[in-house]
Amino acid sequence: MEDLRIISDKTRDALLNGGAKMAQYTVSQTETLEFNVSSGEFSLLRTLYDNSLSIVAYVDNRMGHASGNKFDDASIAAKVADCLASAKSGTEDSAYAIAPKQENACFHDGAYEPDTDRLFARTREFMDDIARNYPKVLVAEMMVSHVKRHSLYRNTNGTEYETKKGYYEIGVQFAGHDEDATTSFCFEEITVGDLDTPFLELGNLKKAFADAEAQLTTIPLTGKFEGTLILTPGSLSSFLYSIAELFVSDTAVLEKTSPWLDKLHEKVADPRISISIDPFHPRIVCGERYTDDGFASESFDLIKDGTLEAFLISLYVANKSGFPRAKATDLSLVMAGGDTSYEDMIKNTDRGIILGRFSGGNPSVNGDFSGVAKNSFLVENGKVAGCVNEVMVSGNLADLLNNLITLSKETVANGSCVLPYAAFDHVTISGK
C-alpha cells in the first residue's frame, strides 16, 4: 500500500499554493477480499483495491470539493485545481467552517488483516447449518468479504486522524422454496469485527430463515382495520432512518421542513423510547471516529425518555440554524429495549401484523407513510395466524412514536445498529 502521508503532503502543498486558507482532505486505500457462493458452491474469489482522495476547500467563504482515485502527482494537482475552481465559482456563505484544532489520533478497529482460512471455514459451516436446520430455505447467493481500510484525514487547522480498520461482511440472499412454492427473496447483511461466532448465530438470521420457510403458506386478509404494527429490528431500522432524514437531518433543518423544528428538548415520543447515536457501542463494528467536519466523534442521545435531545446536523447547518451540531455524523443507531419478551409481545396483541419488510415510496415530508407489508405475518388473539401477502400498512411516523405499546427485551445487532422489536398501535392495515 502507498505512503498516505506523502500523498497527503502533496495535497496540502497544492492547496496552500493555490490560495486555500481553509481545507480538509482525506487519503484512503481499501483492500477488499471477497468471494461468492452460488448454488452451494464457491464461485468467485478476488481481491479489489480502491484508492480515494477527497478534498474540500474554502476560498473567500466559498466551498469547493473534488475527489478522485489516482495518487500520481499530475492527478493530485488536477483534483486540487478542480476543487479550487469549484470553490471560486461557488456561492459565498459565512457559515462554512471546519473544526478547530483537535487532538491528533490514530484509531485501530476490528480485524485489520483477514484470517482467510477461518473465513472460508465459517462460510462452509454456515452453508451446512442452513441446509441442516432450514431445508426449505433456498440460498440464491451469498457474498462474504473482508474489508481493510487505511485512511489519513488532515485539515489546515492542524488536525490529523489516522484510521486502520478491518471487518468482515456476510450478505445472503434467500427465499423459502418447497417444490412449486416459492417466496419472495429476502436479503440479510451482517458486519462483524472477528470470526469468533458461527454466522448462523449472528444478527437475526435464525428468525429470518425460519420466517422464510413459514412464508411458503399464506392466508388471505380482507378488509381494513386499525391495529397493532409489530416492527422487527430490520423494519424498525428502515422507519428510524426515514425519521432521521425527515425530522432531524441537515436538509430537514436547513429547509425548515422538519415537524420537530421547534421541538428541541421537548417531548416527541413515548417516554419509553430512547435512541442514541453511539459509534463506540461494543456491538457497533468499526464505528465512526471523527465527523465529516473534523471533530472527534462522541456518542450522544438523539431521543432520551421521549424527549428530542439533538438534531443530526453538520457544523455548517448548525451555524446557519443556531442549533448545536451533532457530535457524530453516522447513523450508529442504538435503541434501548423494554421489559417484554418478543413472545409476550405477540401474546398481548389482539389483531395486527408483524412487519418483516416495508416496501413503499419515501414517506411525505410530514411523515405520512403507506406501503406493502412484505415477509409479514398476521397476529390474531395473541397468536401468529399465518403469513400474509398483498397487505398495505399506512400511518404517520411522528404519530407512531407516540403510539408505542411495548418494546422487547431482546435487541438485535447487525454491526451498524442495535435495535429491539417494537409494537405500535393505531396503524391502518388493509387487505384485498
Uncertain parts: none
Q: How many beta strands in the DSSP annotation?
A: 21
Class by alpha and beta content = alpha+beta
Rounded to the nearest angstrom, the distance between the terminal CA atoms is 58 Å
Characterize the biggest β-sheet.
9 strands, mixed
Radius of gyration: 24 Å
Q: Kindly state the percentage of residues in helix.
A: 10-25%
Summarize model confidence as the mean pLDDT: 95
Order of helices and strands: HEEEHEHEEEEHEHHEEEHEHEEEEEEHEE
Strand content: 35-45%
The domain tally reads 2
Q: Looking at the structure, what is the overall shape?
A: globular
Q: Report the total helices.
A: 9
Task: Explain this structure.
- By secondary structure, the chain is of the alpha+beta class.
- The chain has 2 domains: 4-214, PmbA/TldD superfamily (PmbA/TldD fold, 2-Layer Sandwich); 218-432, no CATH class.
- 23% of the residues lie in helices and 40% in strands.
- The protein has 9 helices and 21 strands.
- The strands form 3 sheets. Strands 9, 14, 15, 16, 17, 18, 19, 20 and 21 form a 9-stranded mixed sheet that branches.
- Helix 1 (4-17) packs across helix 2.
